[in-house]
Amino acid sequence: MIATLLITILAAGMSTEPATEQPALRCDIGPALKQFGGNDWLVYGCADGHSVVVTAGAPNPATPFVFILTPDGSGGIELHGEGAGAESATKPAYESLSKMSSSDLAALFQEASRSNER
Fold this sequence. Notes:
Number of domains: 1
Distance between the termini: 18 Å
Number of helices: 3
Order of helices and strands: HEEEEEHH
Low-confidence stretches: 1-20
Number of strands: 5
């Protein structure tokens, strides 16, 4: 519950769009455990059926840090990150995530969804 609330607040706070045009994402599907940049990250799917939140959990030195990935509408993704974790852990993860296509994002969402069903 707290993680969902935090993710919703972070997603809303990172938007440059007015709040009336950009609804907050509810991201509580999952999590799936994935490695990005040499560390474990938790991947949550969002209620929009497309977006994911990738969050660092202990003992990942990126903690506390969260990435939000959304489709950009042209076959790519939008990637936003926020937190105070070690750059030595966040930068390699960012580099890995930034190479994703919209089909990679869809596969990541499906992994989180499958984890939620277990």
